[in-house]
Amino acid sequence: MSPAASATTDRSPNRKAPRRTAERILDHTLELFNRFGEPNVSTTLISAELNISPGNLYYHYPAKETLVNALVERYERALQEALHAAGPADDAEGAWLLVPRLFRLCWDYRFLFRDLNDLLTRNRQLETRCQAALTQQTAAVRQRVVRLCAVDGTALNDDEADALATSIVVLLNYWLSFEYVRDPRRALEPENAEAAMRRGARQVQALIWPYLSAELRQRLRPTLSEPELLRGNLAVRG
To answer: What is the CA radius of gyration of the chain?
Structure first.
């Protein structure tokens, strides 16, 4: 074997190491941000938790803002996955499944919603990305709300559909902030995830239930208790 070939062989097992390290950093950073809040987590703490040097962390993510942006990119991919996985708008049960999926996503990235106002003041890139995410959510929810009501023989006018979809999206994105205010020390701990999301789903139910017949309510009610949606992890990596 030639020296060049030998060198290539020696290097090949390590080619993916930087990628693995970068993803491991993001995994731990998300966990720390969710647990303590983004403003309370320094890059020094992140490197200490990972048992890597600050220089190694800097190599992959030169500033905390780059970590936040990378996690937001993950969130954006997970949002697309949630929107597509919920099923077509013309399927009543599939349309309603969007609610627990979006709640799960908000939980997986709860630091983003808890600290959003603070993050927006420091990160202009985040401003446009969050606006785009809200627009996508609102459009998807509106489409499904209109379809659910149409299945039931109820026609919403544009103003009603816009108002209902916006109310649902506001509740989805800020429900965990409400939970946090009610119980700052325990609300956002992992063991409380399922209960918090169930409570939030019931509030969404209260918004849309008046527009639906008793028969359709009965069909949709079990989807609020889908354990694989409430307990699963929708976060996308890679």
So the answer is: 21
Contact yes or no for 81/234 (Cβ under 8 A): yes
DSSP structure class, residue 155: P
Asked if residue 101 lies in contact with residue 229, where contact means CB atoms within 8 angstroms, the answer is yes
DSSP code of 17? H
One digit per residue, pLDDT tens: the chain, 238 residues? 444 444 444 444 444 455 689 999 999 999 999 999 999 999 999 999 999 999 999 999 999 999 999 999 999 999 999 888 776 666 777 777 888 889 999 999 999 998 888 999 998 889 999 999 999 999 999 998 888 888 777 888 999 999 999 999 999 999 999 999 999 888 888 898 888 888 998 899 899 899 888 888 888 877 665 544 455 444 433 3
Q: Is the pTM of this model over 0.85?
A: no
- Residue 157 — φ and ψ, nearest 5°? -80, 170
